[in-house]
Every structure is written in structure tokens, then in C-alpha cells.
Design brief:
Helices cover about 35% and strands about 20% of the residues. It is of the alpha/beta class and about 600 residues long. The strands form seven sheets. The chain has a seven-stranded mixed beta sheet with strand order 2-1-11-10-12-13-14, sandwiched between helices. It has a five-stranded parallel beta sheet with strand order 4-3-5-6-7, sandwiched between helices. Strands 18-19-21-22 form a four-stranded antiparallel beta sheet. Strand 15 and strand 16 form a beta hairpin. The radius of gyration is 25 Å and the shape is globular. It comes from Gracilimonas halophila. Pfam families: AMP-binding (PF00501), AMP-binding_C_3 (PF23562). Keywords: ATP-binding, Nucleotide-binding.
Length: about 600
Amino acid sequence: MKYEPTTILSIVEQGYEKNHTGIYSAVKRDGEWIETSIDDFRQMVRDLALGLYELGVRKGDKVSLHAENSTEWLVIDQAILSVGAAVVPIYTTQPGEQIKYILENSESKVHFVSNDEVFAEIKPLIKEVESVKAIISILGSDHKKLRTFDDILELGHKKGEEDPALFEKLRNEVEPEDLATLIYTSGTTGVPKGVMLTHHNIASNALAAHEIFPFDTDDYETPKVLSYLPLAHMFERTASYIYAYVGVPPYYIEDVEDIRDDFASVKPIYLVTVPRLLEKIVTGIKVKGQEMSGLKKQLYYWAVNLAEEYDPENPPAKWKWKIADKLVYAKIRELFGGRMVGFNVGGAALSPNIARFINGIGIYCGLGYGLTETSPVLTGPPKGELRIGSSGKAITDVELKIAEDGEILARGPYIMKGYYKMPEKTDEAIDCEGWFHTGDIGHLDEDGWLFVTDRKKSLFKLSTGKYVAPQPIENALVNSGFIEQAVVVGSEHKFCGALIVPNWENMKKRFKTKGYEFPEENITENEYVIKRIEKEVEKVNADLSKWEKVKRFKLLEDQFTIEDGEITPTLKVKRNVINEKYKEQIDAIYADEDT
């Protein structure tokens, strides 16, 4: 093994001296950035850890954290780990019943919430959770029974004065094989499963994933990174440990709708993201050209098309790129703050067109692959290498192989210890030889580059016997500026259909450009809207196999949401929920299938 067993605490500690900005992290609240110095951060971690100790938290206990991204989130995480306890992160979008299950199943001793609004989700049910002995509000509370973050800091500070050696003693007792976190998979089916990850799982994964990061902090005087993905997700959380290790402060945004303003004010060099954000940004960039006219418009779309055709193994002629860069790309890069080096994308498949475009305008965009159960990174493009459509190569210490049915199997030090209190589920996931069965379908090329097709459970068979992987088709559809979301259906039917949510904002702009009045009612039945979407579907169909083509679709007015249980907190489609909830629309697609 390249990386010796170590702890999360150790790699964070190593980063303090590498940080030359003096800032550990920052959070945006009410439109203002609040920066926290390294010294203040370390003191808060110390005080909070001892405050938790005073509340009775000991090594091996569980502490749950239900809050938005913030510096306090990072403090709480480090404080819990410092006393040898395990962190149980909870998405702010999870419903009360699910939170109750997580608290009971994990036997959480202390529960953190960000504010009363977040607490409201579990408030009616919290009395039934016997394990929770204290609830702490990060930003204060009107509820008398809730302790405040500041109160616990004060409690811990006093304990530190009484027993100055206690904090270091507790930290020194933390071992690499100790449980660091219990992360409950949101899951597209069934009850959430608690993924058990140790300090060594996560710390060694962070060190290995760091090898493929596309930037070197020494190249920048004041490097900063922007963050918007929830820290409850292992992708962003492991990234936070890498930022700490290399000494780069993360800036946590307030609202993803304002992220363009945040790019401008923070001027980050890097962002970890899921495909959807880049899809929306690229769509906006393309639509921007519609506001131009004449030669300016022609040059703009010439440059856009050049970027969309980008091939890292056969880049465009230098003179072409220089002209496109001067006229268009440099201005587009300014939308990201002007210093952006690159994006690492995970969580879902990235459309090759989006990857080509971002790389084509001069910003690195690499796709990685992994799961919560793998801490999470398994693959990524090695530095200086890229293959469009691939999720990269196995990172240090990871073994990959493809099972006979096409399932991706992985083995190595980053694989979870198992599912908490679910030995049977653990045995289903990890075989006797230590191979973790990912549930994803894919293949490795002759050079070891991984190509992921879809979730194994997402594949469906048409009545003709042909198998369809819906995700690549859906990714191609949402690459259109007029399609916001798409779910491909067709199991046991003769052909593929789709439920499509149009991008109503861009549709309204098109109506205005054409001089049409946008309909206030029955917009999914509007003839022009349907024809516009038909054109977009046909563009996608042109590149699909005969049996993959979307022959019919139904338009939906409202987006699929986390709150309605249609997508997971990581934006994965819950296909069983969609199939049940929109049964009427799906039945209509296949109404005269046999006639």
C-alpha cells in the first residue's frame, strides 16, 4: 500500500502549515462572506470537542449533524472526530421520518441542527428517539430545550482550562481503523443503509484522490475553492479534507441560484460539482448567443461549436483556438471568476458534449467515479490526461474488474467496513474475495480507462428483448437548452418513451424571439412547445441505436424534486417513484402500442 494507515485528524493537521492565506474556510450568510482564521478554527474545534466530552460523548459514540454547509459544519465534524466519536451527516432535504430512522438506527447521542427551520422537520418526532440526550442549534434557537453552539463552545473552553491535556489525550487515542462516519445512503429503493467508513478509509482516499487534482496550490498567491454540494455527501466531504490537507480555504455559498455572483466575488481556482450545474451553465452560455446578431453571432457560435468538438487527443489548430479564445472563450472564463483551473465531476454521468465544451474553452473538466461505500473515489483522469466519456483510471491502491454480467467490481483500502447492523446486506455487497459489487455497469478499455454505462437496476428490457441504459439517453436530452429534466421509460414495451420537463425559461425566450404570446394555461399541450421538444428529441435520436430512440414523450409542467421524493438528495432519479406517480402519463405514451 502506498499510503500508511492514518487518520482524518492527521491529514487536516498537516495542512495548517501549508495554508498561506490565513483563512481556514468561509461561509456566505445574508449576502456577506464570513471568513474564519486558522487559529480561530482550531480553537473552536478544541472547545467544541471538550464541550461534547462534557455532554457525555465518548469514543465510539455517534453524533448526528443536520445542517447546511458552513465553517461550523467543519468545526463540528473535526470536534466529533477529535473525541473518537463518529459523525452521522444528514441532508437538509431529508424528511422527518427518515431522519428519525437514522437517529434511532445510529443511536446518535447528540444531534446538531443549523436552525429552527431545519429542526422543524424532526421536532414532532424527536421525543421518540431515546438515544439523543442533547440537541444543539448552530445558529441559535427559540426552543428552550435546544442548547446553542456558543454554549457548548463555552462549556468546552472552561473544561480546557481545567484540564489542558485532555484534548490532545483524546485525539491521540483515535486510531486509523476507528469508525469515522456513518453515512446513510439516500437510495433509490428501500430503507437507507448506514455505510461504515473508518478514518483510514477516508484519509487514504483523500490522499490518493489528491494525486489527480488538476491544480498545484504553489501556483497561486491566494488560492480559494468554491463549494456548493452538501457536505453530507461523501464526494464534497472528502474534497473538504483534501482542501484542508493542501491548505486551500473552501468558500461555502448561500444559494446555488447566486453561484455566478459567487464565482465573480471569490474568484475560485477549483470546484467539485455534479453534472447538472455545468449543464445549466453551458445551456445559458449557448442561449446567450441568441441575443446577438450578424457577424458577432456567427463568430460566437463558430467558437461554441469549436469547443463542442474538442478532442484532447486531437485538439484544434492553435490559430483557430487563439482567435476563439480572444473573441469568446476568455469572456466565458470570466463567468467563473477568471482564475478557474478546473472542475472535477462526480455523482452522475457527464454528457460528453459538456465535457468537450468546458475543456474546449480552456478549463479542465474531468469525470471521476465512486460511491459512498468507496470513501468515495475509485477513478479519475491522471494529471495531464483526459478521455472524453471516461471516468478515468483507478486511483492508487484500487483494483477494478468487470464481472461477467458487466457489473463494475472494486477492491482496496477505501471499501467500507459494511452496512451498520445489516450483515446480510454487507455480504451481498462485498464477496468473500473482498470485491465490492458497485451495482453499476461499465467496461475497461485496453489502457485501463473506465467507462460507466448506467446503474444495473436502471437497465430495462424492451418487449423485443433489447436492453436499454436510460441514463446516457437522459443526459443527451438534458443537454438541450429546451429540456430541463428527462426520464426514459419503456420496460416491457416495444419502444422507448420519455417524460420530459421543458426548460420553461428558455422556452419563454424563444416565444418572445418568434413574436409569439407565451400561453398561461395548458402549456404542456401547446403545439409550438411540443414541436420544439420534438426537434430536440430528434437531434438526440439521430445518434442512438434503433431500439434506443425515444419515439413518444409526455411533457410535464413541474420539475422532479427532492421534496416530492422523485429524486434523491444527490439528484439521482427514483425510477420506481416516477413510474408509480406518473403512471397515467406513461400509460398514455403506450396507449395504442399494439394497434
